[in-house]
Design goal:
By secondary structure, the protein is an alpha+beta fold. The protein is built from 9 helices and 6 strands, in the order H-H-H-H-E-H-H-E-E-E-H-E-E-H-H.
Length: 183
């Protein structure tokens, strides 16, 4: 009987002390359906759509199928409802397959492929690359690699959405936010 109580106590503690991420993971949603916007790959048209919708920027997520860090971002960060809601509110969001032969139109109105766009225009060789562009198609911030999780990705979104990128580098913004959180 004592052993049963001990097992029940351990199970209870495991449930009580389960990380908050487990709760978020339970409501995870497909990022291709709930995070990324649909597109025909015409970036000048998407800039017009972003302006008309009152968005702050366009975010491109350069990825490739066999990338473990892309997989991490899609299964740990981009699939979270609060991330999806915040980013959809402020940005138009599109995936770009760096190995893709799908035709698209770059920000200058030139027809290219996703592969050529990623490599020739932005020198993307490692993935993921998270790139934000202003509503004129100018690169304003580029993050290479996965983020440390939801909170860092949300911070990056806040940095762009609030226009802080115009005032300071991301590293300083991040440092200021951490310092303010400690107070």
């Amino acid at each position: 009987m004592r052993r049963v109580h001990h097992i029940l106590a351990v199970l209870f503690l495991a449930l009580v002390l389960a990380p908050a991420n487990a709760a978020e993971a339970a409501v995870a949603r497909d990022p291709y359906r709930y995070f990324f916007n649909e597109t025909w790959g015409n970036l000048p048209e998407e800039l017009e759509n972003a302006r008309a919708a009152g968005k702050q920027a366009i975010m491109l997520f350069f990825e490739m199928d066999e990338c473990p860090y892309c997989h991490y971002m899609k299964t740990t960060v981009l699939n979270q409802p609060r991330v999806q809601e915040y980013f959809r509110k402020h940005f138009l969001l599109f995936p770009i397959d760096i190995e893709g032969d799908i035709e698209m139109t770059n920000f200058r109105g030139e027809v290219t492929t996703q592969k050529e766009f990623a490599f020739r225009e932005f020198r993307v060789r490692a993935t993921p690359v998270i790139a934000f562009f202003d509503l004129d198609g100018k690169l304003i911030y580029r993050h290479i690699g996965k983020t440390r999780g939801v909170s860092e990705f949300m911070l990056m979104g806040e940095y762009i959405a609030t226009g802080k990128y115009k005032e300071m580098p991301y590293v300083r913004f991040k440092r200021q936010k951490k310092k303010a959180a400690r107070r």
